[in-house]
Amino acid sequence: MRGHIRKRGTTWSIVVDIGRDENGKRKQKWFSGYKTKKEAEKALAGIIDKIEKNQYFDVENISLKDYLFYWLENYASKNVAESTYKRYKEFSSKIIDFLGNIDLNKLKPIHLQTFYSKLSEEEHLSNSTILKIHRMLHLALKHAVGWQMMYNNPSDAVTPPRAKKIDIKVWDSDTSNNFLEFIKNEKIYLPVLLALHTGMREGEISALKWENVDLEKGYIYVVANMQYLNGKLTLKEPKTKKSIRNIALMDSTIKALEKYKKEQLQNKLLLGNKYKDDNFVCTHENGEPLNPQYISKRFLIYEKAYKKIQEENNETPIEIIRFHDLRHTHATLLLKAGVNPKIVSERLGHASVSITLDIYSHVLPNIQKEAIGKLNDVF
Hints:
By secondary structure, the chain is mostly helical.
């Protein structure tokens, strides 16, 4: 890389070779307005140093590809959770494949609208995934506007696809209890019970430690979330402030926790130094915490096994659901029992009660019908 300075009138200017264009021709960049030769020389040295370290880019002609690399490195890596940053990198790779060579300032809404159509029709991505890509790109371009790298955000004029509402599947109380009985001697019994009895997420269950369980007062304090990142389990803060919460426990839940704590103590005595005592509640025999992915996968395996036994016995088989649907089951059973949606929202750790009402709107008509029945009795 080469550069030089020259005097233009009463001020000094810098001319720097910043690489070559797509045709192989040398590209030069002028920087003007330096009052002294020494000031210009210092600025030239700094620019050349950035170029050699691949830290320089031409704001006027920067491509979307180079901008996204810059945004990921200088914003996303420092301001979002590790799992979110990993997802942003995956989304950026998809964007770059389609739009990366377009100059940032030449990016138009029609480019994005066409891109989203291709993701749907050619890549067969779900509306939910495309919407997530749109939201990330909108945020990145919003920063570009704020950093005065472009005049407006083209994603403001784009209509992304609407995410399809997830069809929530839940069990009734009999199915829930029968399944718990089926897995009562299995490793995932306690995680399943906690999900059904408290509405906790699998990551919160994996992260739960005994120091955050008060068996005397009957409370669980949710303060962390477990994630599997880069081949290892990592404790993270919950994604929202509302996710940090206290959950009151039923007597049956307390008894199950007390029983498991005794069994865990026996394992400690048996294994001695081989026991990894990090104080987690839901663990393998050696004390290592259960991976959230392990919980979800094992749950599905036992579900299918239970369903097969029911079919062989000519019984009505259970509906196969996700582990996360146990959380929905907890909420649905509470709402059907007449528990105030505000309380349900607090147990689940939703940011607001409106989220709870939106997710479980399918339950509300039945509750309203029951309320009218009671009102009939009153009058």
